[in-house]
Design goal:
mainly alpha, two-stranded antiparallel sheet, Arc Repressor Mutant, subunit A, binds zinc ion, 68% helix, Diphtheria Toxin Repressor, domain 2
Amino acid sequence: MSTPSQEDYLEAIWQLIQQKGYARAADIADYLGISRASVSRMIRKLHENGQLTYERYRGLNLTEAGRYRGQRLFERHQALSRFLEVIGFDDRVQVLKTVEGIEHFFGPEELQRIERFVQFMREHPEVQLTWQSWQRGHPVEKARG
Ligand code: ZN
């Protein structure tokens, strides 16, 4: 990932807390693939913005606002992953990389439209099958690397 944004941090922290019950700077650094120094800087910033609390021995926690925002960001990430899968991406790493690249450009309306599309496909497996077989007949040129 290129330099992670505040949104990436919030999403990561929210998810780490869901999974492990806590999020230490080292966990966040691993999760985002960055150095601990940049994590400390961003933790300070998120603290100033009222998204998280930090206590030396108890570690960090999201505030109500941070939790709300983190969950929204996580849901956006999930919706975009499902969308990419429906349109034919089948490589998990590629899906993840693509979502991380595009997620910041999607606002609530764009997201709702994508979620509706994914939901429609789920509720109409016959349409999804037709779409999948059509896709097989119209292969895309795979990205290299
Ligand atoms: Zn994400």
